[in-house]
Amino acid sequence: MEETPAQHKQAEAETDAQAEFSGQHQVTTEASENLGTDEQLAANANANPNPGEQAETEAEAEPWPETVADAIVSSVSSVRRLALRPVARIARRLVYGFVILVLALFVLLFGTIGLIRLLDAYIPQEVWLTYAILGGVFTLAGFVIWSRRPRGAAS
């Protein structure tokens, strides 16, 4: 008599229950072929004593290239924040100050030339009168600035 798949499953379940109850282990011929030699079994037992625990730690741990890359990125950004930004800020201020100084000198030079030409056009005398007027204005401006200096600065 042939047994049906349901009867076959029931028979396997009964034999499994009997094996668990008696504390015996049944090894199928298929499993015994896959086990290998005693040396291989010992090596496998020593290599991975608790495979479930190792799989959990490998899944939780980040891959080392990402960890190293994150460390490099964080150290480079901290060096940039602590060293390069202040130096760049100082260099930027020096450059802008120099540009403003050069532009102020050009404005003063061309402004003086323009003022001389303007006064020369509207004053009917020779150009010496224009020079005398501007000399007096610049001298007065120098006296005002000199009087506002801190005491003891000239010594």
Structure description:
Helix content is 81%, strand content 0%. The protein is built from six helices and no strands. The longest helix has 59 residues, at 64-122. It starts with a helix and ends in an 8-residue tail after the last helix. It is mainly α. The model is unreliable at 24-34 (pLDDT under 50).
Task: Explain the layout of strands and helices.
Elements: H1 5-22, H2 29-35, H3 38-47, H4 51-60, H5 64-122, H6 127-147
Task: Provide tags for this entry.
81% helix; 155 residues; rod-shaped
Helix content: over 70%
Straight-line N-to-C gap: 127 Å
Beta-strand fraction estimate: under 5%
Give unreliable regions as ranges.
24-34
Mean pLDDT: 77
Structural class by secondary-structure content: mainly alpha
For the biggest sheet, the summary is: none
Topology, number of strands? 0
The global form is rod-shaped
What's the Cα radius of gyration?
48 Å
H/E element order:
HHHHHH
Task: Please give a quick description of this structure.
Helix content is 81%, strand content 0%.
